[in-house]
């Protein structure tokens, strides 16, 4: 099943939406990435309906407000400031044009945080291992596949 | 080499060259927390940021760094207001952690504004090295809001990417005298790589001071910003130097200069009003130029007082953008002796 928020990653987390009388009103299926990012205000939104989130409140399409902090596009136009790091995701198509006009490019070329470099290395290693894993499964080399899976689990633990 | 000894934010410059000033600022935010600009940046978030920062600060305290809770009377922030003009008017609770000319402001426009401040504008590399080390120290213990594509995420898209802004305050009295300050200001504004600011209201140039800062932070490396700014500043300083040399060699221009100075001086001493702030500051600026280049007799007025010291006092304590400076009070208390002397 696909994630209700991004609509393309596999869902791994189920969020139960509880009503006023503590009854389960709805379920939300989220991938692990979106489950870490989604804000409480977004989940409890009365418009949140299973299966329609990605089309209705997709952060990339919605321009009314940032799903994490509620910051509105008009507020940015007024003050020139955003409300939170997630606003950049929410308003990326609009901000991209602004960046093309006011910055030298749309891609960062400078230094990056050491923690991020470390995690990025691990993520790349996991990606390579998952490719090897698929290959091993195709070749029915299950012993090696098991070993790779163990290494991947260890690396994944470092990312948390 | 102890590059920063007795210089910068809380030190004073003793040599009489261009009294320019520089500050490098890095905008950094903590991941998963709204920016201080957000209406959701409540005391809860502010407290959380401060708690995280305190963990970084504790070992720094043993190295002599100070933790200052900010009030509108904080002397340190008045000194910094040339870089952060809204610092004193912003109602959010702010913290300043500093030692010498190196520090961090917490909960200003971004969660953290890491800065280094100093006087020598011709070589910016040592400042960057120091600030970069300072940034590395913080990022070891904090998770910054960072995106692979957009770099360090800041409340303002104008600081995205590297988050590095270099502010240089240039004092250009000779160029202003020869070409007119408005022309110089317009020339700065016509450029497409730097932003220019002046101290007066409604874009009025005060004391021939111009603050330039880089426009671009994304799509460019820190070292490239550094080089671009350095080249630009060196070029301007070269022109100022040429203008000064021309003034020294040209008796006719010196005569005009002296006539202007004398009439301004007499006017100021006769009737001084609050609105004459610009006249007074421009006068002191020219006086400093004249004294530095040796084109004015030092025995007239102000003789007992070093104009350079007066200048440092004005630009450090009085000339803060967005601050209501009561120049009359300043003159009466600080320079009362001059009025009596003349």
Q: Mean pLDDT of chain B, as a whole number?
A: 79
Order of helices and strands of chain B: EHEHEEEHEEEHHEEHHHHHH
**Using DSSP, what is the number of strands of chain A?**
2
Q: How many helical elements of chain A?
A: 8
Supply the CATH class of the largest domain in chain B. Alpha Beta
Structural class given helices, strands, pairing of chain A? mainly alpha
Percent helix range of chain B: 40-55%
Whole-Å distance between the termini of chain B? 45 Å
How many beta strands in the DSSP annotation of chain B? 10
- Overall geometry of chain A: flat
State the assembly state of the protein chains.
heterodimer
Q: Going across the major beta sheet of chain B, what is the strand order?
A: 2-3-4-5-1-8-10-9
Q: What's the structural domain tally of chain A?
A: 3
Sequence of secondary-structure elements of chain A: EEHHHHHHHH
- Across the major sheet of chain A, the strand order is 1-2
Greatest interface by residues involved: A-B, 30 and 42 residues
Work out the strand percent of chain A: 5-15%
- What is the overall silhouette of chain B? elongated
Computed CA radius of gyration of chain B, to the nearest angstrom: 21 Å
Rg of chain A computed from alpha carbons, rounded to a whole number of angstroms: 20 Å
Major beta-sheet overview of chain B: 8 strands, antiparallel
């Amino acid at each position: 099943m696909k994630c209700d928020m991004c609509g393309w990653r596999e869902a791994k987390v189920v969020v139960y939406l509880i009503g006023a009388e503590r009854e389960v009103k709805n379920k939300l299926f989220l991938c692990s990435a979106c489950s870490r990012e989604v804000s409480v205000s977004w989940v409890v939104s009365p418009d949140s309906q299973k299966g329609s989130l990605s089309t209705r409140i997709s952060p990339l399409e919605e321009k009314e407000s940032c799903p994490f902090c509620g910051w509105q596009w008009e507020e940015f136009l007024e003050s020139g400031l955003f409300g939170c790091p997630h606003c950049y995701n929410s308003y990326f198509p609009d901000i991209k044009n602004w960046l093309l006009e006011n910055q030298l490019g749309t891609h960062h070329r400078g230094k990056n945080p050491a923690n991020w470099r470390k995690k990025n290395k691990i993520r790349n290693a996991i990606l390579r291992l998952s490719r090897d894993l698929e290959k091993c499964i195709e070749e029915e080399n299950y012993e090696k596949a098991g070993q790779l899976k163990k290494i991947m689990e260890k690396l994944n633990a470092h990312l948390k | 080499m102890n590059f920063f000894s007795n210089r910068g934010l809380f030190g004073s410059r003793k040599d009489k060259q261009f009294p320019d000033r520089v500050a490098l600022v890095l905008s950094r935010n903590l991941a998963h927390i709204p920016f201080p600009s957000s209406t959701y940046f409540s005391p809860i978030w502010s407290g959380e940021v401060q708690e995280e920062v305190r963990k970084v600060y504790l070992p720094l305290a043993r190295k002599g760094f100070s933790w200052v809770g900010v009030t509108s009377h904080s002397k340190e922030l008045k000194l910094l207001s040339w870089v952060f003009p809204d610092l004193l008017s912003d109602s959010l609770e702010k913290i300043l952690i500093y030692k010498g000319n190196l520090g961090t402001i917490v909960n200003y426009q971004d969660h953290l504004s890491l800065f280094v401040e100093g006087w020598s504008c011709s070589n910016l590399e040592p400042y960057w090295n120091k600030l970069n080390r300072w940034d590395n120290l913080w990022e070891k213990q904090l998770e910054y809001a960072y995106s692979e594509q957009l770099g360090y995420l800041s409340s303002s898209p104008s600081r995205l990417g590297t988050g590095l802004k270099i502010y240089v305050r240039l004092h250009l009295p000779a160029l202003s005298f020869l070409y007119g300050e408005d022309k110089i200001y317009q020339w700065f504004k016509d450029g497409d790589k730097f932003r220019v600011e002046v101290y007066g209201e409604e874009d009025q140039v005060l004391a021939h001071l111009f603050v330039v800062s880089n426009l671009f932070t994304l799509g460019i490396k820190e070292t490239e910003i550094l080089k671009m700014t350095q080249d630009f500043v060196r070029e301007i300083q070269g022109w100022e130097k040429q203008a000064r040399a021309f003034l020294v060699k040209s008796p006719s221009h010196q005569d005009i200069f002296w006539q202007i100075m004398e009439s301004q001086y007499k006017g100021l001493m006769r009737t001084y009003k609050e609105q004459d702030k610009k006249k007074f500051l421009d006068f002191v600026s020219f006086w400093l130029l004249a004294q530095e280049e040796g084109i004015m007799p030092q025995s007239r007025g102000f003789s007992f007082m070093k104009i350079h010291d007066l200048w440092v006092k004005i630009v450090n304590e009085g000339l803060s953008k967005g601050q209501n400076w009561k120049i009359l009070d300043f003159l009466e208390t600080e320079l009362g002796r001059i009025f009596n002397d003349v």
